[in-house]
Amino acid sequence: MINRRTWLLGAGALAGASVVGLSQRLTLAAEGDFEFTLTEAEWRERLSEMEFYVLREHGTERAFTSPLDKVYDPGMYHCAGCDQALYSSDTKYDSRTGWPSFWEAEPGAIGTSVDNTFGMVRTECHCSRCGGHQGHIFDDGPEPTGKRHCINGVALRFVAA
């Protein structure tokens, strides 16, 4: 049986591991060798508060809040940070998760890292040009890849064809 002390020690260890994982991801975005880089002040000037939270601080927007979740017009989805084309509308599908989802990114547009926050291991994806956090990649998507790129809509900008 778990007593209160054991539970508190376990919860503290989990919180500590999450902080370490977050700091490792923030270092990636801050110090990575990316083609497009700005200072924190320049990012804050360029992005809205929510865009900065998601792209630069690895935040997540609430599910079902992005208008891009239901956009299925032909076009490209670009990084809201640096404008690199990331996803084609041809690879978008309705995952019913509340975030725009794609089964494949444009070649070379997305980089990945391990996200071990919140006591789980996930594949984080970021823009390969600026390091901006986009979301996560899961193995429960449709064919032909079986992948679900679950992306924060605020991290994207849609450019109609």
What do these coordinates show?
- This protein is of the alpha+beta class and 161 residues long.
- It starts with a helix and ends with a strand.
- Strand 3 (92-93) and strand 4 form a beta hairpin.
- The model is unreliable at 12-30 (pLDDT under 50).
- Strands 3-4-8-7-6-5 form a 6-stranded antiparallel beta sheet. Strands 2-1-9 form a 3-stranded antiparallel beta sheet, with no helix packed on it.
- The protein is globular, with a radius of gyration of 17 Å.
- 27% of the residues lie in helices and 25% in strands.
- It has a single domain (4-160), classed as Peptide methionine sulfoxide reductase (Metal Binding Protein, Guanine Nucleotide Exchange Factor, Chain A).
**Element-by-element helix/strand order:** HHHEEEEEEEEE
CATH class: Mainly Beta
Low-confidence segments: 12-30
Number of helices: 3
Spatial order of strands in the largest sheet: 3-4-8-7-6-5
SSE layout:
Blueprint: H1 4-31, H2 40-46, H3 49-57, E1 75-79, E2 85-88, E3 92-93, E4 101-102, E5 110-115, E6 122-127, E7 133-138, E8 148-151, E9 156-160
Antiparallel strand pairs: 1-2, 1-9, 3-4, 4-8, 5-6, 6-7, 7-8
Task: Give a quick set of tags describing it.
3 helices, Metal Binding Protein, Guanine Nucleotide Exchange Factor, Chain A, 161 residues, six-stranded antiparallel β-sheet, 9 strands, alpha+beta, 27% helix
Give a short overview.
With 161 residues, this protein is of the alpha+beta class. The protein has helices at 4-31, 40-46, 49-57; strands at 75-79, 85-88, 92-93, 101-102, 110-115, 122-127, 133-138, 148-151, 156-160.
